[in-house]
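Weekend entry, working from home. Most of the wet-lab plans are on hold until the incubator is repaired, so I used the time to fold the two sequences that have been sitting in the queue since the last round of cloning. Logging both here for the record. First:
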Amino acid sequence: MLLGGGKLGKTRVLQAETVALMGRNQIGDLPLTEIKSLARQFARSLRMPESLDKFGLGFAINTQAVEGGRASGSMACARIYNTFFWIDPARKTTAVLMMQFLPFLDDVARGCSRSLISPCTALRPVRIGGSQRSGSAT
């Protein structure tokens, strides 16, 4: 639905303007700094991964492309038990990784997340019949 600009199939769920607003920087010039853990058994201290540097409405946002990683405008969200989702409007691609273990974003969780996202970032937007869809990197 978010990749469809607010439409799910032929049904409009959100206005296109609402979806665009969700993916826009909502924190202005505030930087994302290291998040200090107060309970290391639940979460490690961390910096936002993959150059996520701003927040929209419900998502962390990459405002700059990452070489071999997320495109500019990509949005992501993560939860304490290492459940992640990632939306890349430029590539018309999304990914969901469901894990249920602690601590949050330890080396195992980061490795799984990178393994999921890396093949997706090799996709290049291609035009098929007038619409843009993800295709192979070649």
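Second, folded right after the first finished:
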Amino acid sequence: MKASVSRSTANIYANCIAFSELGAGDSFALMIAGKNREEQETIAQSTLERVGLSDRLHHKPSELSIGQQQRVALARTLANSPSVILADEPTGNLDPATVDSVAATLRELNDEGITIVMVTHDPRMAAHAGRVEKLVDGKIAAEAA
């Protein structure tokens, strides 16, 4: 059970993990098991295209904005076709336009059947959710949306 859950679940964090010496596409190799280099490149290209960064395939994190790094992290999350995405403040460090872009992508993924479980303090992100649970002192206090 544990192995199947870990393969079908992916994570996005506020402070995306960037591999400083790897280009955006090369970092996918660390996330995609059981695929040859050509398949990894194809997956990297298609998922980067999905988040609007197909032209950044070979750019290192130092050559990307924080928002672009976060979208690369989102693309890597999609690389293994998860059925559940756990998103911990996925837009915490982003400008408003990038927040809207990430929110739209997460909404599209949810509309495609991927479950998104997100923790956020941003009411704009919460507004995109189909269901919102408020936590107060570690307990569910109210349901909204």
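Plan for Monday: verify the second prediction. The helical segments are 2-8, 37-50, 66-78, 96-111, 123-126.
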